[in-house]
Specification:
With 279 residues, the protein is an alpha/beta fold. It has one domain: Rossmann fold. Helix content is 38%, strand content 18%. A six-stranded parallel β-sheet has the order 2-1-3-4-5-10, with helices on both faces. The protein has a three-stranded mixed β-sheet with strand order 11-8-13. Strands 6-9 form a two-stranded parallel ribbon. The radius of gyration is 18 Å and the shape is globular. This is SDR family oxidoreductase. InterPro entries: NAD(P)-bd_dom_sf, RmlD-like-bd.
Amino acid sequence: MKILITGGSGLLAPYIVEAFSGSGDVMTTSRKDAEYPCDLTDKAEVLELVEKINPDVIVHLAAMTNVDYCEEHPDEAHAANVTATAHLVEAVSGSDCYLIYVSTDQVYPDGPGLFSEGQVDPVNQYGASKYQGEEAARRHPNSLIARINIVGPSRTPGRSSLSDFFTNSFAEGKHISLFQDVLFSPLHMETLAQLLLQCYRKKLTGTYNIGSHDGMSKKDFALKLAEYKGLDASNVTIVNSSDMAGRAVRPRDLRLNVAFFEQKSGIKLPSLQEEIEKL
């Protein structure tokens, strides 16, 4: 079996490579510094790559994820998050290739959380472009769309995760601000990678929230992480997201309702506290 992973230079890719490596030949692509360099916004390059590899599985991680940059450059966001996905879908059209499109919790509105899958109403260009990418992916019948948020130690040189930022800041005694009004339901990247592998093995298709139970604020997440690791978290300021000027609008409560995924997959998802204890 051949597995193609896009976004090979991103945070999640090393975990996906590790999870799928026991199931076949894993190949990665990104614009540069990859086994198979490819500009996914160039249809000819995508068609050539997919024809050459003829993958049985594509895990589509490549995306433009900087929320503020996407807001200021909507055309670039559309090209990276929508056009690239459409090219992959065209390339595998008519095949049985299993396509995993990794989406985001940012497709949901700025309202009370525990969103179910039908409550889509993005408030920024990033969320809108990722949702349009979902719609492109859904045109391929054998596809899985996973709405996620992630934490965990980075294995990618030059990249760091939110949990890395908190851990390093506490360890170095740096002053940081913690949002008390921004809530989320992330999974450890290793957990998510294993879940996506299970989805492939079950041939699960459709659109799902795949996150942790009992989401919490980023303030509480950071403080619980510090407590678990035995780090001093006293040098912090508690703030609200509205205190930060000049940022793109972001939903504040992005806790996910994961009941539909658990029902369809038969997989019980972990609590966020359990994920913290893996960090």
